[in-house]
Amino acid sequence: MLVVLAILALAASLSAPVLSRVASDRGIESLGERLAEHLALTRAAAIRGNAVLSLAFDPRAPAFRGGTGAPLTVPPGVAVDFRAHPSARAGEMAVLFLPDGRSSGGTFRLERAGAVREIAVERLTGSVRRQRGGTE
User: Fold this and answer.
1) Residue 129 pairs with which residues in a beta bridge?
2) pLDDT above 70 covers what percent of the chain?
3) From CA 108, how far away is CA 112, in angstroms rounded?
4) DSSP β-bridge partners for residue 79
5) Cα(108)–Cα(88) distance, rounded to whole angstroms?
6) What is the pTM of this model?
7) Range 68-72, long-range pairs (CB < 8 A, 24+ positions)
8) What are 53's strand-pairing partners?
9) Is the dihedral angle over the CA atoms 30, 93, 114, 40 positive or is it negative?
10) φ, ψ for residue 43 (rounded to 5)?
11) Alpha-carbon distance 103 to 16, whole Å?
12) Neighbour count for residue 43 (Cβ, 10 Å)
């Protein structure tokens, strides 16, 4: 009986890091999906309203603001990075959407505990792509 309990305890201690990684991975995936939805809705609103709209990351909050609806809050421990298109203004962590559907382009990178998601916005079409681990 003690041997069985010892084996179960060993199995539980070995699986804890794996379960933690799975939870972190799902949290980043969920945040990435919500960010992609916010970006797509902002693009649609720019086209519908014939206006220039943006979605930007505010590191002080930390949250994504602008676009349509309430800000998208970033959970603690999530690192956000942004790679802008070379033609974009330096220092801004934002994507602008134009009334014709185009955008300023760029890629948001979300990372926590080794789990990575990238959400890329195409410059010419404004389309949004989701990527795991920063690979195409």
Assistant:
1) 120
2) 76
3) 14
4) 111
5) 14
6) 0.77
7) 68/38, 68/41, 68/42, 69/38, 69/41, 72/31, 72/34, 72/35, 72/38
8) 97
9) positive
10) -60, -45
11) 43
12) 25
The answer to whether 91 touches 78, Cβ cutoff 8 Å, is no
Residue 92: band (very low, low, confident or very high) from pLDDT cuts 50, 70, 90: confident
Return the pLDDT at 67.
Answer: 77
**Secondary structure (3-state) at 53:** strand
Burial 13-42 (b: 16+ CB within 10 A, else e): eeeeeeeeeeebbebbeebbeebbebbbbb
User: In the structure encoding, which two tokens stand for residue 101, read together?
Assistant: 């559907």
What letters, b where the CB count within 10 A reaches 16 and e where it falls short, cover 57-91? beeeebebebbeeeebebeeebebebebeeebeee
Residue type (1 letter), 86 = P
Integer angstrom CA distances of residue 18 from 11, 36, 43, 93, 115: 11, 27, 37, 33, 12
10, two tokens: 């060993």
Question: What are 95's two structure tokens?
Answer: 């994507």
